[in-house]
Protein: EF-hand domain-containing protein
Organism: Noctiluca scintillans
Amino acid sequence: MNSAVPLFWACVILCLFLFIFAIVLVQGVAAYIFSNVVLSEEVRQLEEYFATVGRTMLTLVMSMTGGMDWREPFDLLAAVHWIYGVLFVLFIACSVLAVLNIITSIFVTDAIEVAHMDMDLSMRGELANSRKAVKELRHIFRQMDVGGHGMVSSAMLERALKHERIRAHFALLDLDITDAVSFFQVLDVDTTGFLDMSEFVMGCLRLKSRTNLI
């Protein structure tokens, strides 16, 4: 949708480009007809393609898009003057490159927008999962903190892990704990022998992220 505005202005510039070239070619053809003795068949062919600005623009568009073989208009313009033949070829080359650039820019812009949307959705999904994990870890901590002191020791963690329900909670968070003592030591970064809720949650999230990377 964001590509619509650049596409609109690109089309406007292309139409202006067509109009300017058409005026130049019409004036050149008209001057050639009036200043030279031109055969009626040649006049008919020139008028067929370049009689008016509108018809000349149509000839240019059809030549540019493959609606007609542009060799015949080129031969007629080259007969008028070589410079008009060069201008015609230059128009075809520039217009084809312009159309290709417009199409490429539309696809590239749309692809970038889709990539940004995917990244945004992925980040939102990860954020939602992190919030859910934090909530679950806080719930586990409260279950281990039977005294309600806000601290958990190695022995308390070891006792809690004997319960299948607690182990199931850890398993849901991709935390497979085989050695309670080693697990506690990894979480106890300040080596106080106790874990508060913040230390426990952050330590488990850190281990969870390492597991996901592996």
In short: The chain has two domains: 3-115, 145-212. The chain has nine helices and two strands.
